[in-house]
Amino acid sequence: MTCLLNLCSLPVLSLARPASCPCRPFQARSSTRFQQALPSLQQLSGQSSSTGRSRSCRVNSRRQAFSVCAVAEKNPDAKLISKTEVPAFISRRDFADQMLRWAVIEQAEYGPAKYGMPFKITKDNQEQGVFGFVTSFQRSASDATDIAFRFDTDIAIKHEWVGRGEDGFPLMQGGQEEVTGKHLEIWKTDSNPVDEPTRAAVRLWCQELGAAINKYYAFGSCFVDDSQ
């Protein structure tokens, strides 16, 4: 995962991924039994030559830069904490919907008793792409730290299956489908300074969020109890 801003020293946002996973998930309490369930990053690359890979990297870099700049232009105070590419075959709508429901349940069941301060969850309806949500940590009635969970508006290409090329390497085959929301992003969307109690609450929130994301990656649901 690419950590572009080390906000509140959140190591959970920049941890290593399993070698067999095509994305860079947040590391938390993930089950090793399912580390082989997803194809490798090389299998999903779909590039047949070094020239193609280089050109694709340059285009993707420009698209990512445009996506970040667009958000920053809309909200000058927004700071990108972290972003990671999500495999195209994962349903953005189902993923975002489950994470929103998880966040609402987490806030209702635990709230200040667990995180040390009150917070609220607000659905974030974007003009384009998949919805997300914003977690507002309320230090006072007029002072809050807002952490946004959302997909960007970049386009990922989804293929029907992974075949094998003449050289024996994996090759993306079948029909193609454009999927809006190539990267999962975590943003700090306000300009308020972060004190130590808020930093601790945000750190714990991101750790629990990471655990829920890993459950979804492993089981297809963030509500599974993987402690057994």
Task: Outline the fold blueprint.
Layout: E1 2-3, H1 50-74, E2 79-85, H2 92-109, H3 112-115, E3 119-124, E4 132-138, E5 144-151, E6 155-164, E7 170-180, E8 183-188, H4 196-219
Antiparallel strand pairs: 1-2, 2-8, 3-4, 4-5, 5-8, 6-7
Helix pairs in contact: 2-4
Tell me about this structure.
Helices cover 31% and strands 25% of the residues. With 228 residues, the protein is of the alpha+beta class. The strands form 2 sheets. Strands 1-2-8-5-4-3 form a 6-stranded antiparallel beta sheet, with helices on one face. A two-stranded antiparallel ribbon has the order 6-7. A hairpin with a 7-residue loop joins strand 3 (119-124) and strand 4. Residues 1-69 have low confidence and may be disordered.
Looking at this protein, list some descriptive labels:
signal, 228 residues, two-stranded antiparallel sheet, six-stranded antiparallel sheet, 8 strands, 31% helix, 4 helices, alpha+beta
The largest β sheet comes out as: 6 strands, antiparallel
- What do the pLDDT scores average to? 73
Distance between the termini: 28 Å
| Helical proportion, percent range | 25-40%
Strand order of the largest sheet: 1-2-8-5-4-3
Overall body shape: elongated
Kindly state the number of beta strands. 8
Q: What's the alpha carbon Rg, rounded to whole Å?
A: 18 Å
Tally of discrete structural domains: 1
> What fraction of residues sit in β-strands?
25-35%
SSE class: alpha+beta
* Poorly predicted ranges: 1-69
Q: Determine the number of helices (DSSP H or I, runs of at least 4 residues).
A: 4
- Written as H for each helix and E for each strand, in order along the chain, the element string is EHEHHEEEEEEH
